[in-house]
Predict the structure.
Amino acid sequence: MKQTTLSIAYLIAFLLSPILAFANTSLFTDATVYGHPEANAVGVKNGVITFIGTEEASRSHSSIDTEVIDLQGAALYPGFIDNHNHVFEAASEVGGACEVSAEASLEAQIPYLQFFRKSAKPGQWVIGYGHWLESILSDEDKHTPLEVLGNVFPDQPVVIMEQTSHSMWVNSQALAKVGFTAKSKDPKGGVILKDEGFMLGILLDNAGDLVMEQAWNSLQGKFNQSYDGLINGLQAVAANGITTIIPQYPHGINYISQNDMQWWLQQLNAIGYGAHIHTFGDGGVHESLDAIAAAKQAGSKQDFHKTPCTK
């Protein structure tokens, strides 16, 4: 039988026992094997599936050193690969305990804020998360997000991360910590949202990251909390069948090669379309710019607009 590389064996081993994850040879028995209704056993050696079949037939594929894991009828599935995951932010207590509503409008967020106000330590940062940006920005609102947050927390800095992690909801004390005023220019890679010159209390990308960085650096034991959050996050994704995650890198990741991107840009231009390219890291940015330059040299007439993204 052809050997198939699959990381699900390490997933199950990780969930059942940390020691098993490092075993050279493992045999999973009494399993409901996805895609193989007649099989109930899977053998793995050095991360490679070497056997799929019945438990009786598996005996010839095991030895005295084989770790046998009885799944007691549980399902054995291929692992899922998540190519963009914020596992640390999602699981770490460093992200804060002030969880607002994901769907609530600006005014409807007030009870959530008031609840966390009761347990907030005077003078210290309040860190939260959970809302959607669109839900707290509406022409129908009587007050700005800055005013609403300031009314509940008038005397300590507050930063609340939006669901996508690309914006922060802050109050005046938080803005003062980084020196942002109504006259401030947007920092590189970020935007300070304003309405006719008045600050709204919403910071996009790097503008918000500058505030969150100060909030995180004010915490005691942040490194231990960060480590615990990472471990908790890895356990959570593993429990949901995700065996591989791709975090953010400083040098970029090739989802589409530069040559392929050049071809796509030229094909889109031929039918009158432009493209929205999401990049991060030096490598990804440089390859995208080179692909755009090549498309323009080939005759593309599409306008080029840059929207910085630091996530």
Summary: The chain has three domains: 4-78, 87-217, 252-311. The mean pLDDT is 82. Residues 21 and 141 are 53 Å apart (CA to CA).
